[in-house]
Design a protein that fits this description.
Length: about 475
């Protein structure tokens, strides 16, 4: 095209473009190239002589394998038509139009374009265009989007932004699915989503949004609520973690964050809780049945004691019956305790000591037991061993700690000191005593065996006519954590 009729306007435009650091071109409304500056030549790899006088898409041919390139061509043609009609600038954001390299291979390119009219005698005689290569920016954004999508799929996160002032709710399609909406069913606001949140959960959400918005940029927000989907019997459990930030596009403070569908987790937790309750009931019932069975066994031994003539045999049977009853009593206490995996060992031993005191008869009926125990939660597996240890220590104290017809007070203590648990028993020393816990005998052997099971030791001593014995063992590792 002959540019002579509008040479003044074109020349003025050329002078404007020549020294610009930006990539600039000048072309007619029919897309004939009139001028390119050096920045444009460097960016596209096309020199002045290759471009000027030829059609724009004759020089920069669209990639026939990429429909996106045709879209860019149409956008430029529409922009030119708009400028000719309105004489107003026109902006085109991020259009793909690949460039041929020296080997005839198309290289991926994305462009951002701004076009201005060049007017002479009231008519648009040329278009001034600034071209920005935004390929790297688009690649980075696509990479970020790909990583975000992968993170969403892998973690169950679905990102969103929410403007409380307009109720505009921009979100991942997965959020619509969480609420039981079909694509495009819910619209652009959050109102339909609030309609499906459990009514009693809504006030807390509004209060949290108001609090976060009042705190301004950098304030975090957290919600956990239930979603009730029509014709679906069970609720969905949703967790939202978000923060207030300023939207870089419009500068408004908005809530940005992620939705997490916790339904599977909550359902699994409910199932585990139900199973735990069932197991607890089974353990309680087992303890009850064990207690009854052992009580029957002890009763049978007691009957055998009456039918035995040998004093030695009677003593052995009586000791065995007492030990069986001790185990029975422990299971009875466990039956009464609400814990299953853990038990308040101090409370258990105190109750056991009181129970033991009620069973004392005969010459030892004047003996009383005073128990001072510290509340210490221990795994239930320690309960029987501890109670049997106390049973043997109390039996020893009653048997050897008093003389015929005397009164005595046996002291029991259960405490924890510096990650070590101590079970202590003290009894007065009778001058008529003939045995001690450290002597040979079944009771002594059992106590040392129980201490070994607990990972501890037995220490005994006489102090001012008082016999003291202590079973010490470390606090179980799971209790220290």
């Amino acid at each position: 095209m002959n540019a002579a009729p509008f040479s003044k306007a074109v020349e003025s435009a050329k002078m404007l473009l020549s020294d610009s650091p930006s990539s600039m071109t000048l072309f007619t409304p029919d897309l004939t190239m009139l001028y390119i500056n050096e920045a444009h030549a460097r960016m596209t790899g096309r020199g002045y002589d290759e471009v000027v006088g030829r059609g724009m898409f004759e020089v920069f041919q669209p990639n026939p394998d990429k429909p996106e390139d045709e879209s860019a061509k149409r956008a430029i043609e529409q922009g030119v038509a708009h400028i000719v009609r309105t004489r107003e600038p026109f902006e085109i954001e991020e259009q793909q139009h690949d460039l041929l390299d020296e080997n005839g291979v198309y290289e991926l390119r994305f462009w951002s374009l701004v076009m201005w009219p060049v007017v002479e005698d009231g008519e648009v005689v040329a278009i001034l265009q600034r071209s920005e290569n935004v390929t790297e920016r688009v690649r980075q954004r696509r990479l970020t989007d790909a990583v975000r999508i992968a993170a969403e799929e892998a973690s169950g996160l679905s990102f969103f932004s929410y403007d409380p002032l307009t109720d505009r709710f921009v979100r991942n399609i997965a959020i619509d699915q969480m609420f039981g909406f079909e694509p495009d069913e819910a619209g652009e606001t959050a109102a339909p989503f609030f309609d499906r949140i459990a009514t009693e959960d809504v006030p807390a959400i509004h209060a949290e949004v108001e609090r976060a918005m009042a705190g301004g940029a950098g304030t975090s927000a957290a919600f956990d609520y239930r979603v009730l989907i029509p014709e679906t019997p069970d609720p969905r459990f949703i967790r939202v973690r978000a923060g207030i930030e300023r939207d870089p596009v419009d500068g408004k403070l908005k809530l940005f964050g992620a939705f997490i569908d916790m339904t599977d987790v909550e359902e699994a937790r409910a199932r585990m809780e139900e199973l735990s309750q069932r197991n607890a009931a089974l353990v309680v019932e087992s303890n009850h049945r064990i207690k009854n069975s052992l009580a029957i066994a002890a009763a049978m031994l007691s009957y055998q004691i009456g039918a035995t003539k040998s004093d030695e045999a009677q003593e052995a049977l009586k000791a065995s019956a007492n030990r069986i009853m001790a185990i029975s009593d422990v299971h009875g206490e466990l039956y009464a305790d609400t814990g299953v995996e853990y038990v308040d060992a101090g409370h258990l031993l105190e109750r056991f000591a009181n129970s033991f005191a009620r069973t004392i008869d005969g010459d030892a009926s004047g003996c009383s037991i005073v128990a001072e125990t510290q509340s210490i939660k221990l795994p239930s597996r320690f309960a029987v061993t501890l109670a049997l240890t106390l049973n043997e220590l109390l039996t020893n104290a009653v048997k050897y700690g008093m003389a015929h017809g005397q009164q005595c007070e046996i002291k029991v203590a259960f405490v924890v000191e510096n990650d070590t648990i101590h079970l202590k028993v003290e009894n007065p020393i009778s001058e008529e005593r003939f045995a001690m816990i450290v002597s040979e005998g079944v009771g002594s052997d059992l106590v040392h065996a129980f201490a070994q099971q607990l990972g501890g030791e037995i220490v005994s001593q006489e102090d001012d006519r008082v016999f003291k014995v202590r079973c010490s063992f470390p606090v179980p590792s799971e209790e220290r954590e």
